[in-house]
Write a sequence for this structure.
């Protein structure tokens, strides 16, 4: 009745009977999250830390087997750090900066991510998805112990959903039978095949790519190893696939991805002896390795029309799917949570109108479109769909070996960066003359060293008035919402990064920053009227 | 920013045309296709201006 659909990497939330199961009438909860993956648990962390009771329902009892997402972007790590679990990720993950691109039998060029100084987190950190999930679940347990209202219910499968105007009724199956609860808000974080989407009959449209990719995660034996770099082959000479990706993970594990084409015998290809034939051709016969995990995947680039349907809100893969090139799956899911958490918090606390949640829809649809566009373009480059597109692709690769101009055209994945909500409904005007483009309204705040720490840690969870070389009278209060003041002088800016990222040509600046660290508005000096108006707009109280 | 020039702009057009054909001499169809693709990329990069390139893409449609 509640059979596992997949093996677990580890048990994290074993089934326990809860009091809702013994209630005479269905208990009402503010927020229930369907799905205990990274997006679901992150949502619970976000809400729980705001003091809002968040219950995660998952039909399994822990984290699924397999490394799956391996490449976590700076922004995801910053979000996790805000929740209090960024440091263990930094300790565990593998930092990489160099990427090499090979075409047939030769290296055509290499690139360096050349990470900008003055950030707490690197551009990317590789780690198996179960670690990422583990650190968040461990954090959830710590917060629970501190009394924060987070609950993770394993083997609680939502079998029935009835959406009402102002709540949702859920029928939840457990090993001890079903129970019913009512929820004010239901978050669908139940993954790419979202049963919730299915139960609600919502469409999920987009482009299906006719290609199969074989993942093999291997652990090297002996002292033979590869450098900590991303290697990508187009049409590799070892013929193990029409493209191949090699990437490092912690624990001496390497991710290898082979592009197999469309007409394959899935079952045959997944046999270990057949995977080993491909690996041996690539690595050479003398290399010994152990196979850790393998899988064949196909992918699609699609999204739901709307991420909000009344009292039901979708996030992560349930709302949108992209190809894996560019690491835009789990990373965009974390940005969804970042965007949703504070907004839902304000609505649940009665401080903002429900319509604020429509900005979750518009901003994250905008983000999903950007991710789909980037990942579709990468896919068209990696797996050309016509003869002429292959001719151009190979022309780019051949030219890239000799000529610098062709290298930016090589697209083996455009790696995830957070989206700038240009033109977003919550943005107010940009009144900082000479201000840097990267911190315009709608943009995510870049980190910068401040004193002995980092700016990100000072911003944190609430609205912030960030004053740089500017006088601010005190915290800003408007319509029941408070914005804390963070005052910084460029004297604390030892390497000039803060000035470079937030002042540009201006001498001073005042920013209003949202709880998800996106800029709402900015100006050269404190202007209370403007800031109040921007705060109302950013909280959905003035449109 | 300048507009796409669709008037004569190459000195000694017959010589240019001969150069173009001779670059393809001895190439197979596949090699010629690849060469043309590389040539387009090199020229497009030289132009650089995306508006001009877009106009050129339109002009080439006839």
């Amino acid at each position: 009745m509640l059979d596992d659909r997949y093996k677990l990497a580890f048990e994290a939330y074993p089934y326990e009977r809860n009091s809702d199961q013994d209630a005479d009438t269905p208990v009402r909860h503010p927020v229930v999250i369907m799905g205990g993956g990274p997006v679901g648990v992150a949502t619970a962390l976000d809400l729980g830390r705001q003091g809002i009771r968040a219950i995660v329902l998952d039909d399994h009892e822990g984290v699924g087997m397999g490394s799956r997402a391996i490449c976590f972007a700076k922004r995801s790590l910053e979000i996790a750090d805000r929740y209090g679990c960024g440091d263990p990720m930094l300790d565990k993950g593998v930092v990489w900066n160099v990427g090499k691109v090979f075409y047939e039998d030769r290296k055509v060029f290499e690139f360096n991510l050349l990470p900008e100084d003055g950030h707490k987190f690197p551009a990317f950190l590789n780690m198996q998805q179960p670690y990422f999930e583990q650190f968040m679940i461990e954090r959830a347990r710590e917060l629970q112990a501190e009394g924060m209202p987070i609950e993770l219910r394993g083997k609680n499968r939502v079998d029935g959903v009835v959406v009402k105007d102002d709540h949702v009724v859920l029928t939840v199956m457990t090993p001890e039978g079903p129970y019913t609860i009512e929820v004010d808000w239901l978050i669908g974080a139940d993954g790419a095949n979202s049963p919730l989407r299915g139960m609600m009959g919502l469409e999920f449209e987009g482009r299906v790519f006719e290609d199969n990719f074989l993942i093999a995660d291997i652990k090297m034996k002996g002292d033979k190893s590869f450098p900590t770099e991303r290697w990508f082959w187009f049409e590799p000479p070892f013929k193990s696939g029409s493209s191949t990706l090699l990437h490092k993970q912690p624990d001496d594990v390497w991710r290898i991805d082979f592009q197999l084409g469309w007409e394959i015998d899935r079952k045959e290809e997944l046999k270990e002896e057949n995977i080993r034939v491909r690996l041996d051709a690539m690595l050479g016969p003398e290399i010994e390795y152990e196979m850790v995990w393998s899988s064949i995947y196909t992918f699609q680039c699609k999204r739901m029309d709307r991420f909000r349907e009344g009292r039901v809100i979708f996030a992560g893969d349930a709302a949108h799917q992209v190809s894996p090139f560019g690491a835009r799956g789990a990373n965009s899911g974390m940005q969804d949570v970042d965007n949703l958490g504070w907004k839902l918090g304000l609505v649940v606390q009665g401080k903002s109108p429900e319509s604020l949640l429509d900005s979750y829809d518009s901003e994250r649809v905008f983000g999903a479109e950007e991710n789909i566009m980037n990942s579709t373009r990468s896919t068209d480059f990696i797996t050309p769909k016509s003869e002429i597109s292959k001719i151009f692709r190979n022309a780019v690769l051949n030219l890239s070996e000799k000529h610098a101009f062709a290298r930016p055209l090589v697209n083996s994945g455009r790696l995830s960066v957070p989206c700038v909500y240009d033109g977003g409904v919550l943005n107010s005007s940009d009144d900082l003359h000479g201000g840097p483009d990267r911190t315009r309204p709608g943009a995510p705040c870049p980190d910068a060293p401040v004193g002995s720490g980092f700016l990100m840690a000072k911003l944190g969870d609430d609205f912030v008035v960030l004053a740089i070389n500017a006088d601010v009278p005190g915290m800003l209060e408007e319509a029941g919402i408070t914005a804390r003041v963070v005052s910084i002088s460029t004297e604390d800016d030892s390497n000039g990064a803060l000035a470079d990222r937030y002042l540009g040509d201006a001498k001073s600046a005042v920013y209003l920053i949202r709880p998800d660290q996106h800029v709402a508005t900015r100006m050269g000096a404190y202007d209370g009227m403007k800031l109040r108006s921007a705060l109302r707009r950013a909280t959905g109280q003035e449109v | 920013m300048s507009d796409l020039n669709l008037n004569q702009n190459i000195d000694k057009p017959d010589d240019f045309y001969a150069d173009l054909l001779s670059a393809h001499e001895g190439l197979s169809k596949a090699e010629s296709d690849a060469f043309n693709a590389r040539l387009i990329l090199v020229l497009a990069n030289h132009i650089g201006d995306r508006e001009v390139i877009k106009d050129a893409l339109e002009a080439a449609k006839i």
Notes: The mean pLDDT of chain B is 96. The CA atoms of residues 12 and 41 of chain B lie 24 Å apart. The first helix of chain B runs from residue 13 to 24. Chain B touches chain A through eight residues (CB under 8 Å).
